[in-house]
């Protein structure tokens, strides 16, 4: 898998999230190692989600993992805290804001529930 393929897939998965109730600014950078290596960021600003293939210098947190681990986290198949404990995910930055990543991922389930109503 190339970085372009990986980014297109993961971007779509993140953009499914309903962030309308997230009022704080969140900015995460993801560093992909191994196959499909590259960088992208996820930002929630003013209730709008942005996912772009660039480095984010003013980030709240930075996560580093291989493409498979990041995809499983984005799909909700792997809990980010479990990935950290298993050392499949590395983190640096603001712990409090990093913990909000789970809220962002779980909001996809909420968004899908709204679509099915």
What does the model show?
The chain has 117 residues and is of the alpha+beta class. It is 40% helix and 26% strand. It has five helices and five strands, in the order αββββααβαα. It has helices at 3-14, 67-75, 80-85, 95-99, 101-115; strands spanning 26-33, 38-45, 48-52, 61-66, 90-93. A five-stranded mixed sheet has the order 3-2-1-4-5. β2 (38-45) and β3 (48-52) form a beta hairpin. α1 (3-14) runs parallel beside α2 (67-75). The protein is globular. The chain starts with a helix and ends with a helix. The relative contact order is 0.20. Mean pLDDT is 89; it is low at 113-117.
Itemize the secondary structure elements and their pairings:
Blueprint (H helix, E strand, L loop, with lengths): L2 H12 L11 E8 L4 E8 L2 E5 L8 E6 H9 L4 H6 L4 E4 L1 H5 L1 H15 L2
Helix pairs in contact: 1-2
Strand content: 25-35%
Distance between the termini: 35 Å
One letter per element, helices H and strands E, the order comes to: HEEEEHHEHH
Structural Rg: 13 Å
Number of strands: 5
Q: How would you state the average pLDDT, rounded?
A: 89
Q: Which spans of ≥5 residues are poorly predicted at pLDDT below 50?
A: 113-117
The number of helical elements comes to 5
**What general form does the structure show?**
globular
Structure keywords:
117 residues; 5-stranded mixed beta sheet; 5 helices; 26% strand; disordered C terminus
Write a short abstract of this structure:
This protein is α+β, with helices and mostly antiparallel strands and 117 residues long. 40% of the residues lie in helices and 26% in strands. The chain has a five-stranded mixed sheet with strand order 3-2-1-4-5.
């Amino acid at each position: 898998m190339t970085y372009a393929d990986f980014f297109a897939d993961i971007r779509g998965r993140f953009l499914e999230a309903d962030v309308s109730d997230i009022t704080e600014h969140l900015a995460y950078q993801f560093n992909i190692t191994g196959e499909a290596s590259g960088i992208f960021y996820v930002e929630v600003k003013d209730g709008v989600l942005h996912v772009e293939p660039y480095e984010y210098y003013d980030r709240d947190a930075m996560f580093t993992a291989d493409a498979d681990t990041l995809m499983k986290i984005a799909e909700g198949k792997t809990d980010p805290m479990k990935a950290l404990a298993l050392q499949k995910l590395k983190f640096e930055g603001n712990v409090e804001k990093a913990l909000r990543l789970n809220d962002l991922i779980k909001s996809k389930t909420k968004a899908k529930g709204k679509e099915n109503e």
